[in-house]
Model the fold of this input.
Amino acid sequence: MRRIAVAKGDGIGPEIMDAVLKIFYEAKVPLEYVNVDMGKWVFDKGYNTGMTPEAKQTIETVGILFKGPMETPKGKGVKSINVTARKTWNTYANTRNFQTLHGVDTVFSKAGIPIDITVVRENIEDTYGGIEHMITNDVAISRRIITRPGSLQVIKYAFEMARRKKARRITCAHKANIMKITDGLFLEVFQEVAKDYPDLKADDVIVDDLCMKLVTKPDTFDVIVLTNLQGDIVSDLCAGLIGGLGFAPSANIGDHICIFEAVHGTAPDIAGKNIANPTALLLSGIGMLRHLGLMQSATMIENALLYTLEQGVHTGDFGNKAIPPVDTTQFAEAIISNFGKQPEQGAKPPAENAPATETKFALDKNIMLESKETAPENIIGVDFFIESDEQPAEIANKCLRHGGVKFRLINISNRGTQVWPTGSVYTTLVNQYNVRFESIDDTPLKQQDILGLYVSLSGDFKICSSELLLMLGDKRAYSLAQGQ
Ligand code: NAD
Done:
């Protein structure tokens, strides 16, 4: 018996989790469940991470968390427990499968267009660091963190998964045309990893173009890998293609701990009525069984689910309106009564149990992800983000006094658009500028040089933040302003 942690969650969570665990129980799935305390009611008890220390310890011991949706209390300044759990345990790959389900009518199923898309979303980085500041009364900024080793972890996982899935194609979606450094890094890592998988057709697409193509030609995509926020949006779009959030399972995969959950939330509007659709959580659970090597149980339950959907059995959120809906409990019972039956379409072939995906639980220190080969690094300048409501020329006049013998003022920009030495009077300003200084003769600078300039400039301006301008080898490691 393999032990797993179960957190039923909030809202419809307990109803759909009970339905799924009943199906597992009747299918004699060899799992032992340890209930852990997580969710809104745990926040309400005063635990500001939304989980008790005992829950954390259990999950770190058993390595698998099967969870229902959870609500984050609003207005208390606490962070989402769902995001915290994914990040704390480095579940770096969020994998979501979107497949045509017969019995779930969509415009595509009616047109005979089959969908089988797996979205792999980076799960730790990007704007989900939630590192945000108001740096003037008017200006809020968010740090978007994309790292080389973080991208490598998720992209390697996506390629391995695509190979196992026998995928026709793996696509990296991005916005590297605009975010050349961050999304550019993600794309670069994708292209490097692709060289190790010559058997897979690997290509890339700009994320807005992807959205249009997903809606017009969804059957041309197979595995898609994206950064966190873009992946979040694209995966909900894909859920819409196959019938909605009620059918979208998800797995958060890490090297030590994995979390399996539905994509949807706590559905407060229907909570407590026993009418929620448990399919997404059941499909997530089936994915968990496969991850644990329990292929026979997974196949039997999935075929029973597909057969049940084909028969037109449905909860109120989908299906043929001419057939009365069943409630959550009845839906689970229908699946149980269909154990051993094969759906006409999309039946899963018999599969032998396999060893569980290996995980190493006992860590005695935090893992440091670091690239082995690094380019030589030189500081060649600095960006100061200053608060000012003056005109660009006035700011330039003040800044020019501070350059000294080491720095020259390169340019001044506002919201990313250059406004000095050249620019347009039609560029509308806010009270926060970026003033860029570089080394006067391109000789590398020291941190002390930057601090000297910082102290000098702070006599004239409030400096909200600063960034070093680096050269990594012969590569410029910072963006240019629009118009520079
Ligand atoms: P939601 O997914 O809970 O609901 C959106 C709509 O879909 C609602 O009309 C709901 O009734 C319906 N719906 C969702 N799941 C359904 C199901 N299984 N069966 C039938 N209908 C279903 O999204 P929301 O209303 O934006 O969020 C509600 C709460 O859930 C928020 O507190 C949010 O933070 C949380 N949330 C949690 C998770 C998670 O735990 N991973 C994910 C998303 C949202």
Remarks:
- The chain is about 30% helix and 20% strand.
- The chain has a mean pLDDT of 94.
- The pocket of nicotinamide-adenine-dinucleotide is lined by residues 12, 16, 69-72, 82, 245-246, 261, 264-270, 276-277, 280, 317 (CB under 6 Å).
